[in-house]
Amino acid sequence: MRELAFIGKGHLEWREANEPRLQGGGEALVRPLAVATCDIDRLVVAGLVPVADPFPFGHEGVAQVTDVGDDVASVRPGDLVSVPFQISCGKCETCRRGHTGNCERVERMATYGLPIGTNYGGFLSDIARVPFADAMLVPIPGDVDAAAVASLSDNIPDAWRTVAPHLEERPRAPVLIAASGASIGLYAVSIALALGAERVDLVGGNSFLRERAEALGANLLEREFPKRLGPYPITVDATADVKGLACALRSTEPEGVCTSIGIYFADTTPVPLLEMYTKGIRFHTGRVHARPTMEPLLELIRAGKFKPELVTGETAAWEDAPEAVAGHRSKLVISR
Ligand SMILES: [Zn+2]
Ligand SMILES: [Zn+2]
Q1: How many C-beta neighbours within 10 Å does residue 257 have?
Q2: 176 CA distance to ligand 1 middle (Å)
């Protein structure tokens, strides 16, 4: 079969790969139909993420089930499904606590389409293997457009966890989002407003992101990150910029909560720990646990309250994936 491989900075190409086969009764094979770039993909393509060897690309997508093992009960060939980017069994204690990104039955950080440990293939391929079909796959209802929810595998859940649990705790609370030029901050704007935040203020971002954020209903603050804003009960660091992180942390009110989705590759990153201590804020950093958020997100989308397609900046045909991915500057969705 054919898969898209990341070769090196700014360079991707189609290559032949072994077609995955079912390796157990609980597995499924799927054919990806709509694949989105993750925010980290743009950094990978730009050569800003250390990558040693070529790897199969793409880890957000909607696919059609083509084959299932005898023990699979939840999906059948022909079904349209979202495939979470993290491999998880759904049954171990960690999965049952909702921490599906750290499933005990697979190696740590087991993921599609990223050069981490075992190669599970990427979604820009003819076939992908799903090791725990019943636990992982989420059927996409007929009234939902596949391209619109291509990011339901990863970036949309990543945005959800920054605001949804905290707005449940503090209904209607205002939210501050420090953002850089990618999609998660935009999804967070939309989800926070859909869940009843009285206001979402956005600081930072390039002109594309700021324009989109305003169209989605955000209140735009300055482009540069100031030392402090607010304070706000809920803040989000959707940057990978130490100034954005510090701004979000210092803008969190006493006993407030700050979530960082940024990946800081440096060994140490400065944080204003004294201010965090004296105010008593909750700070969370870590990978999203995508799988448990996917059904509530689909409900929000079906109710018309959250329109993820409004975040998509670019689209491309499947055949054009190598050039489209190499040149993408915003959320890209590739379909066939
Ligand atoms: Zn990702
Ligand atoms: Zn597990």
Answers
A1: 22
A2: 22
Q: How far apart are CA 190 and CA 213, in angstroms?
A: 8
256 CA → ligand 1 middle, Å:
27
d(CA 64, CA 77): 7
Ligand closest to the CA atom of residue 135: 2
CA of 328 to the centre of ligand 2 (A): 34
Backbone angles phi, psi at 241, to 5 degrees: -125, 125
pTM above 0.85, yes or no: yes
Q: Which residues contact 212 (CB under 8 A, 6 or more apart)?
A: 186, 310, 311, 313
End-to-end CA distance of the chain: 16
114 alpha carbon, closest ligand: 1
- Confidence class for position 182, pLDDT limits 50, 70, 90: confident
Judged by its nearest atom, the ligand closest to the C-alpha of residue 108 is: 2
* Number of the ligand closest to the Cα of 290: 1
Interior CA angle at 161 toward 160 and 166, to 5°? 105
pLDDT confidence of residue 52: 85
CA of 101 to the centre of ligand 2 (A): 8
